[in-house]
Amino acid sequence: MADQMTVQVITPGGICYEHHANFVLLSTVDGEMGVMPHMIPTIASLRIDELKVRRVDDEEHVDWISVNGGIVEVRNNLVTIVADSAERDRDIDVTRAERAKRRAENELQEAEKQSDIDAVKRAEVALHRALNRLNVSGHK
């Protein structure tokens, strides 16, 4: 029990994930970061990417979570991720994510035609989020 930590993913809707783990892999704005029990206190900004959690109940059990940016705080064997939105692989509606991808691709094309830099950036973020959700859903 001593070599584990609690992982929480919190969104505006509340806690969407909470389990004990012995390893977490996440993507910060500065690169990938692995978190293990007894890590020094850390705070980092997250990129839109997947979160990998190796749970303690089964060495082969890995949970995959789509995280749309946010922050992570590691302190006293508690890994807290605060994100605007997050979804576990098993909860992702693939059809909805594919529609969001197509919509973002169309918006990106229109914004590029009109040379609307702000609209291009918004469409690129929406596309990145949709692709991340589709990637994470493939881990089911």
TrEMBL record:
<dbReference type="GO" id="GO:0005886">
    <property type="term" value="C:plasma membrane"/>
</dbReference>
<keyword id="KW-0472">Membrane</keyword>
<comment type="function">
    <text>Produces ATP from ADP in the presence of a proton gradient across the membrane.</text>
</comment>
<dbReference type="InterPro" id="IPR020546">
    <property type="entry name" value="ATP_synth_F1_dsu/esu_N"/>
</dbReference>
<keyword id="KW-0375">Hydrogen ion transport</keyword>
<dbReference type="InterPro" id="IPR020547">
    <property type="entry name" value="ATP_synth_F1_esu_C"/>
</dbReference>
<dbReference type="Pfam" id="PF02823">
    <property type="entry name" value="ATP-synt_DE_N"/>
</dbReference>
<keyword id="KW-0066">ATP synthesis</keyword>
<keyword id="KW-1003">Cell membrane</keyword>
<protein>
    <recommendedName>
        <fullName>ATP synthase epsilon chain</fullName>
    </recommendedName>
</protein>
<feature type="domain" description="ATP synthase epsilon subunit C-terminal">
    <location>
        <begin position="91"/>
        <end position="138"/>
    </location>
</feature>
<feature type="domain" description="ATP synthase F1 complex delta/epsilon subunit N-terminal">
    <location>
        <begin position="5"/>
        <end position="86"/>
    </location>
</feature>
<keyword id="KW-0813">Transport</keyword>
<dbReference type="GO" id="GO:0045259">
    <property type="term" value="C:proton-transporting ATP synthase complex"/>
</dbReference>
<dbReference type="GO" id="GO:0046933">
    <property type="term" value="F:proton-transporting ATP synthase activity, rotational mechanism"/>
</dbReference>
<keyword id="KW-0139">CF(1)</keyword>
<comment type="similarity">
    <text>Belongs to the ATPase epsilon chain family.</text>
</comment>
<keyword id="KW-0175">Coiled coil</keyword>
<dbReference type="InterPro" id="IPR001469">
    <property type="entry name" value="ATP_synth_F1_dsu/esu"/>
</dbReference>
<dbReference type="InterPro" id="IPR036771">
    <property type="entry name" value="ATPsynth_dsu/esu_N"/>
</dbReference>
<keyword id="KW-0406">Ion transport</keyword>
<feature type="coiled-coil region">
    <location>
        <begin position="94"/>
        <end position="121"/>
    </location>
</feature>
<dbReference type="InterPro" id="IPR036794">
    <property type="entry name" value="ATP_F1_dsu/esu_C_sf"/>
</dbReference>
<dbReference type="GO" id="GO:0005524">
    <property type="term" value="F:ATP binding"/>
</dbReference>
<comment type="subunit">
    <text>F-type ATPases have 2 components, CF(1) - the catalytic core - and CF(0) - the membrane proton channel. CF(1) has five subunits: alpha(3), beta(3), gamma(1), delta(1), epsilon(1). CF(0) has three main subunits: a, b and c.</text>
</comment>
<dbReference type="Pfam" id="PF00401">
    <property type="entry name" value="ATP-synt_DE"/>
</dbReference>
